[in-house]
Amino acid sequence: MSHLSQRPESGPDSYEVGKAIPHEAAALHVTGRALYTDDLVARTKDCLHAYPVQVFVAKAKVTKLDTAPAYQVPGVVRVLTAEDVPGVNDAGVKHDEPLFPSEIRFFGHAVCYVLAESLEAARLGAAAVVVEVEPEPALIEVTDAIAAREFQGAQPTVERGDVEAGLNEAAHVFSGVFEFAGQEHFYLETHCALAHVDEAGQIFVQSSTQHPSETQEIVAHVLGKHSHEITVQCLRMGGGFGGKEMQPHGFAAVAALGAVITGRPVRLRLNRTQDLTMSGKRHGFHAEWRVGFDDAGLITGLEATLTADGGWSLDLSEPVLARALCHIDNAYWIPNIRVNGRIAKTNKTSNTAFRGFGGPQGMIVIEDILGRCAPLLGLEADELRRRNFYSEGQSTPYGQPVRHPDRIRAVWEGVHDAAELDRRRAEIAEFNAAHPHRKRAIGVTPVKFGISFNLTAFNQAGALVHVYKDGSVLINHGGTEMGQGLHTKMIQVAATTLGVPLEKVRLAPTRTDKVPNTSATAASSGADLNGGAVKNACEQIRIRLEQVAGAALGVSAADVRFVDGTAYALGREAGIAWEEVVKTAYFQRVQLFAAGYYRTEGLHWDSTTMTGSPFKYFAYGCAATEVEVDGFTGAYTTRRVDIVHDVGDSLSPLIDIGQIEGGFVQGAGWLTLEDLRWDSGDGPNRGRLSTQAASTYKLPSFSELPPEFNVILLERAHEEGAVYGSKAVGEPPLMLAFSVREALREAAAAFGPPGTSVDLGSPATPEAVWWALTEAARGHEQGQGEHGHVTDGLNGSHPEPSDPDAPERHPESEFRQYTGLSSLTRT
Ligand code: MTE
Ligand code: MOS
C-alpha cells in the first residue's frame, strides 16, 4: 500500500474519509441559501449590467457597427467594442476566438456588449446598436464540413499492430458510418461573471468557472495586465459539466474590461437563450469504421476515422478528440487498430468539454459496432462483449498497460448477479412472446475510463491549510465546486490527515490568490489532485504537531497518533486535546499553516505519436438496463437499472453514489432524449439553434428515472495510486448509459426475427426507436430471419445458400440508411 493511498490504522470509525456524509452545502442548496456568482449582484453597490449584441446570421463579415443609437437609450453607460481592448482581443488560449469579432462565425455570435444601469436598459441598448453584415456561405452539418474539407487543428492517429493484416485474416468484416449528436450542458446556473476594481487597480472577478487560473490568464491578456493584478474567485457553480472549463473566460474578460473602463462593478450573466445560443456544447461526431472478427467473435482489427464537430473555433476540441481516440477501445482488446481523428470547422457554437471529454464519443463507436455486429456473428451482444474484454498483460492501442483488467470481469459479473439477469431474461422472453406490440430487453455495457489529464503538466495541484490558534482549520485548494462534492471530500481528507473531527475543518472559496497556477477542475481528477495537495499540506502540519505532542507526552514524535481530535502516545489511553497541542505549538513558535503540493507520478504522453501512459489508472463500471418499447410509437420506458461501479475505496460513498446516479441519467439524456437541432436549411435562419429552450430540448426529468435504480460500489477496490485508496468518479458513470441505448437496440430487434441487426440513431429518441423497430419488423414480414445467409468479408461477398446451422444474416437492403443518422454496410 502506498503512503498516498494508506488510511490510518486506527480503523474506519476513527476517521472521516469513507463516511457516508451529505454534501457539505446540501442544506444551503435545498433551502436556496447557497450563493452563486449572480446572487452577489444584489450585495454589490452601483453595479452595471452587461448585455451582448448578438448577430443572427451563421457567417458574415461585419461591414458596419454603429453604437451611437445605444447611447440614446436612458441608462446606457457604455458600449464595449474591440477598440476598448488594451491587450489582446481574444477570449481563448488558441488565439482563434476574437472577443469582439469583426467576422460572424455562428448564428448568435456577439460583436459587442452594452453596459447600463439596469439589465433592461442594457437589453434595450443592445437592441439599438446597428450592425450591418455581408453574409457568407456557412457550413452547418459536420458532413458539409467534411465535404468541403474544412478542418481545424491537429489530425492525430492512434495506431497499433497491422490493421490491414488484421482485417485480412478476419472471418467476418463489416463496415459502417455512424453520426451521433452532441449535447447541451444545461447547467442550472448560466454563465456569469461579476468584476470590480479596487483603489489600487487590483481587479477582482467572481466567475462561474471550472478553471479560475485560466480565467485569470485570459482576463490578464485581454486587459494587457499581469496575472498578479487579477484575482478570480469561484464560490461554487450551479453545475459546470465541462461547459465552464474554457467558455467562461471571455464573459469574465468582458465584465473585467467594463469594470476597468467605467470604474464600476460590472455583471454579465447570460440568460438561458443567450447561454444556449452562445456557448459551446458536447461535440457531435461523425464516424466511419471497418471491423474484423474471427470465428470466435474476437476482434482482429479496427480501422476508423472520427470527425469531431468542433464548431467555429478550436477551444478544447483537440484534447477532446485525443480522449475520443484513446477510448475507442473501451473495455476491449483490439490487437490491430488505426484510428484517425480530425476536427471539422462548422459555423456553430464552439464545442467544448462535456462530462467524459470525448471518451463517450470514442466508446459509443465500439459499443455501436458490437451491438450491430453481434447478431450478424450469431452471438448475443453480451457474449460478444465478454469475449473481447481485456485480460492481464494486454495494453491499450496507445501503449498503456491495462492494470486490473480483472475488475472489468468483476463489475460485469457483479451486475449479472445483482440484476439477476438470467432469471429476468427468461421472463422477458416470455413477455415478448406474449406481446406482439410491446417488447422488453436488457442491455449490459462496461466502462473503462482513463483518469488523469492527457496533458501531463495539468496533473498537479496545490493547497493552503491554516490551523488557527484555537485549533480550527481552514483549507483552500485549487479545485472548484460545481455540485460534485469535491469540497466535501476535501474536508474529509483534511480531517483524516490531521486526525480531527469534521467540524474542526472549514473550506474557503476557490481563489487564485490563495492557490496559484491551478488546473481546471476537470477530467474527474479534482479529488485525486487536490486531495493529494490537501493531504500533503496537512501532513506537514501534523508532523510538526507530532513533535510538540511527543515532547508533552514524553514519547518520540514517531509514537504520536492524532485520532478524532486527541493526540495519543501509542499504547496509552490518555492523550492531549488537539486544541491544547495547537496552543502549545503556537507558543513554541511552530508554524501552523502549510502550502501543499501534489503531482501525479508515473505519467507520460507524446501527443505527436499518440503513445504513452497518460492515465494514472482506469475507472471501471458496468450497467444493466431494462427497457420496454411500444411498437406503435417507439415510446419507451426504462424499467430498471443495476450498476456496479469501481470508485476504489470511496472517499465519500453518498457523494459517489450521487455522482453515479447523476452521471448515468445525464448520459441517458444524451443518448435518448436530448436532440440538438440546428437549422440546416438555406433560409435566413440557416445555422440557428432550433432547440434553444427547455420546451424544445428535452432533458431527463423525474418521469424518465427508472423506478428501480440500484447502485453498488465495487468492494475491495483499493487504488494504490490515489489519495486514501479512492478513484475518480465524476465522469465515468455517464458512459454506463450505453446500456440504455443497447437495451433499446435489443428491444427494437425483438420486433424482428432472431438475429436482426438494428441500426439505431443517436439520440435514440422514440422516433429513432420507431424507425429501428419498424425496419426490424419489416425483416420479420419478409421472413428474412429464416432464410438469412452468411456473407461478409473482404473474402468474397456473394450470398451463399442458406445454411440452417449458420447464424442468421440480412441482405444488403437491411442496412441502408433510413434514419439519416447512421448506416451499416458490408464490404
Ligand atoms: N457533478 C455535478 N453535480 N455537477 C457538475 O457540474 N461535472 C462533472 C462531474 N460531476 C459535474 C458533476 C464533470 S464534467 C467533471 S470533470 C467532474 O465532476 C469534475 O469534478 P471532480 O474532478 O471533482 O470529480
Ligand atoms: Mo469535465 S468534461 O472534464 O469538466
TrEMBL record:
Region entry Disordered, spans: 779-827
Pfam families: Ald_Xan_dh_C, MoCoBD_1, MoCoBD_2
Domain Aldehyde oxidase/xanthine dehydrogenase a/b hammerhead: 31-137
Biased composition (Basic and acidic residues): 779-790, 806-815
SMART domains per UniProt: Ald_Xan_dh_C
Annotated PANTHER family: XANTHINE DEHYDROGENASE
Annotated protein name in UniProt: Xanthine dehydrogenase molybdopterin binding subunit
Source organism of this protein record: Microlunatus ginsengisoli
